[in-house]
Design a protein that fits this description.
The chain has 731 residues and is of the alpha+beta class. The longest helix is centred in the middle third of the chain and has 27 residues. 42% of the residues are buried. Helix 16 crosses helix 20. A hairpin with a 2-residue loop joins strand 16 and strand 17. The protein folds into three domains: 416 residues, no CATH class; 112 residues; 151 residues, Immunoglobulin-like (Sandwich), CATH 2.60.40. The chain starts with 7 loop residues before the first helix and ends with a strand. Strands 4, 8, 9, 10, 11, 12, 13, 14, 15, 18, 19 and 20 form a twelve-stranded mixed beta sheet that branches. A five-stranded mixed beta sheet has the order 3-2-5-7-6.
């Protein structure tokens, strides 16, 4: 017995409204798709993978910079005109900073900004379901949205603060606007498409490549764009880009020139970077972790088949799009007669015009062409990209692969349903395959999330930090430092920072009750009174210096997932006997040399021994903390013998107190001989953020500039000092 035909939404075909008879309104209208039973399960899956354990979201330099700018903009009355600095040296647009001002207005905890990013990506999954349901049917919606919700790399990029990570929902909204114009032939889409594209550009400049499908849509449906749509689009562009235009005027078009220069010099030979990265978005992993405690290691065989299945399905989906675009439908007798009439000699232009009008009037063809152009144009552009291609550059293509796979699966099941006998029942195998794909991807994403929570960050995807920190570990370390100082009635906390923690700790420490002094780990600052000190996880030389030059009591080790812990000390003030200092005549303004010798200290590590030269100094003046201001001393030492190598150390502080002692360290290169003496020069400066004022407007940027730079000299005008090097000790 033959089954009744499936409804349109189950068949996976594009649905269009019959002309001439208005649709009968249902109680829920166009929102009835939300009542489908699979929608709650979809939201639960997407939310669980993106929100679980989010308090351990990665919090490095970019994340701290973006949230700090949003927080300062809200609480200092600033107008952001840039966000953070890109890899090419230009400033990213400030749109994402304005977005993060919403959670920053409610709390100083960056966790809520990470929650906002995760919720936006959950919304992107819901929009994906709606897009597929509206244009390709329920089966395509279920397949594509569930595959997108459970994909490993999209889940990973949805779990931390960053500009490219907020793009996903706006990409789908942009696609909905294009389909409204090119597929449905409805007016009012152009201004919305321009709005979504402008917001996507704010997320990352590379998203401007989405202008290609926008131009295609204008070619396919030019009559749907009204003059007022163009006017609205112009007003939208002026509004969205007003801060960026203001910054271009202030900076003298510097960022625009940098971007154009970068584009002109990055073209190279054929590169397959884009294709490899594109593949990463649809497979669970590309290589096994090198840590034996990673959960993925014993379970990877459960997901390895996805590395073949997902690319194969995507290739089939792309081939289906090509077939839809180039196929020819059977014409009626009258239409064939018109075509034959147009085929007479001298009527080729009419035949061409009528052929184009007939082709572009097919909504399914137009939709397939838009999807194909969306996915192919960026990949073709990046095939000639000569520099290093970062994974986030291809986020503008998400959730494209999963849309295509969902559409292809629905079309395949529809074709099987129309067959007779065993082929018709074979569609059940298609349903089973979709279920297996979703389950396997969900398990792989769950394993990836658990490994990330355990501190196993993907170092290749999250360069260039020397190591990574999660927000909860940083907050817990600072809270423990604050609590110890309060419990011991200590008036000051000292915290070491390095390239991986500097920006994050500078912001998070602003919420501490105990005044905190932050300084570079290469320059140990010893308190003039009893204090608490938090030492970073990868600063072993600090521990060696504490043991030799002061009395330090280790209170606790504060764990970090996947790495070495923070160390919390109580520091007793240094004494003359402890540091073995000598009186010197070298007083340079606010610094006093405590010895004419630099001690050599060899620190034995598991794999090698590192030698440090240590020069003791004393701070003679106070430097009070100022918002987003860093005090800098730059020490440059030239080794006299046996080599003339230059040694440099930069010491940064957020505050200084008279009486504090500063141990400046110079690291010797591997196998470098210890010099007999050093010729030392010292520069002093301040680093502040560039925040120009124009009347009532107080602009905010992430550009740091060095001011008040001067070479320190003694009262007699000496600016160079000869330090002898004493015999070394091992630590």
């Amino acid at each position: 017995m033959r089954l009744a035909p499936l409804p349109a939404h189950h068949q996976g075909r594009m649905v269009s409204q019959p002309q001439g008879r208005p649709e009968r309104r249902r109680p829920w209208g166009s929102w009835s798709w939300l009542l489908k039973p699979e929608v709650p399960g979809l939201l639960l899956l997407a939310s669980a993978l993106r929100l679980y354990g989010l308090n351990r979201t990665e919090f490095d330099d970019d994340q701290a910079t973006l949230f700090r700018m949003a927080y300062d903009a809200v609480h200092q009355g600033l107008l952001p005109v840039t966000s953070n600095t890109g890899s090419i040296g230009a400033q990213h647009p400030p749109g994402v900073v304005y977005l993060f001002m919403l959670p920053a207005a409610l709390s100083a905890n960056p966790l809520w900004a990470a929650v906002l990013v995760a919720l936006l990506n959950v919304l992107a999954v819901l929009f994906t379901y709606f897009f597929l349901y509206r244009y390709y049917g329920r089966l395509a919606a279920v397949t594509g949205s569930f595959l997108y919700a459970s994909a490993v790399l999209p889940v990973k990029y949805a779990r931390f603060i960053w500009q490219p990570n907020v793009a996903a929902p706006f990409v789908v909204l942009f696609l909905l606007a294009l389909f409204r114009g090119a597929v449905e032939r409805r007016q009012g889409w152009f201004a919305w498409a321009v709005l979504w594209l402008a917001l996507l550009y704010q997320a990352h400049e590379v998203n401007l490549l989405l202008a290609a499908p926008l131009l295609l849509c204008l070619i396919l449906a030019p009559k749907t764009v009204r003059w007022r749509d163009a006017l609205f689009a112009l007003l939208i562009l002026l509004l969205v880009f007003a801060p960026s235009l203001l910054w271009l005027l202030v900076s003298g078009l510097h960022d625009l020139r940098s971007t154009l220069s970068f584009s002109n010099h990055q073209a190279g030979g054929l590169s397959l970077q884009a294709l490899r990265i594109y593949r990463l978005f649809i497979i669970p992993y590309d290589q096994l972790p090198n840590r034996s405690d990673a959960i993925l290691l014993p379970l990877h065989r459960l997901f390895s088949w996805l590395k073949l299945a997902m690319p194969a399905l995507l290739i089939l989906a792309a081939l289906w799009l090509l077939v839809v675009i180039v196929r020819r439908r059977a014409d009626s007798t009258a239409e064939q007669a018109e075509v034959q009439e147009a085929a007479r000699p001298g009527r080729w232009w009419l035949r061409l015009r009528e052929g184009w009008e007939s082709w572009s009037a097919d909504g399914q063809r137009c939709g397939a062409l838009i999807l194909l152009v969306w996915q192919l144009v960026p990949l073709l552009v990046f095939l000639r990209y000569g520099g290093e291609l970062h994974t986030q550059y291809l986020l503008l293509l998400m959730p494209g692969p999963f849309l295509l796979i969902g559409i292809a699966v629905a079309q395949c099941c529809q074709w099987l349903y129309r067959r007779e006998g065993w082929l018709q029942r074979l569609r059940l195998a298609g349903y089973l395959l979709v279920g297996l794909l979703v389950v396997a991807q969900s398990l792989a994403s769950a394993v990836s999330v658990l490994d990330t929570l355990a501190g196993h960050f993907n170092d290749r995807s999250f360069q260039p930090y020397p190591y990574h920190n999660d927000l909860a570990s940083l907050q817990q370390a600072l809270a423990a430092t604050d609590q110890l100082a309060q419990r011991e009635h200590l008036s000051r906390a000292y915290i070491t920072v390095d390239d991986a923690t500097r920006t994050a700790v500078f912001f998070l420490s602003r919420q501490m009750r105990t005044p905190a002094t932050l300084f570079d780990a290469d320059c140990l600052l010893l308190p003039a009174e009893r204090a608490v000190m938090l030492v970073g996880p990868y600063d072993p030389w600090v521990t060696a210096l504490l043991e030799r030059f002061t009395h330090a009591t280790l209170v606790s080790k504060l764990p970090r997932p996947g790495g070495l812990p923070f160390s919390l000390y109580v520091i007793e003030p240094a004494t003359q006997g402890t540091t073995s200092v000598q009186a010197t005549p070298w007083k340079l303004g606010d610094l006093q040399a405590l010895s004419q010798q630099a001690a050599s200290l060899t620190l034995a590590d598991r794999s090698q021994a590192t030698t440090w030269l240590v020069s003791p100094w004393q701070v003679m003046q106070n430097a009070q903390p100022v918002l987003n201001t860093t005090y800098v001393y730059r020490f440059v030492a030239t080794a006299e013998a046996p080599s003339s190598q230059s040694l440099k150390t930069t010491c940064t502080f957020n505050r200084l107190q008279a009486g504090e002692r500063l141990l400046v360290t110079f690291s010797l290169a591997d196998r470098q001989e210890v010099p007999t003496s050093l010729l030392l020069r010292i520069w002093s400066s301040r680093i502040v953020f560039y925040m120009p004022n124009y009347g009532p407007l107080h602009l905010e940027t992430s550009i740091s500039k060095e001011i008040d730079v001067h070479l320190l000299q003694t009262a007699k005008g000496l600016s160079q000092f000869l330090l002898s090097v004493s015999e070394g000790t091992r630590g």
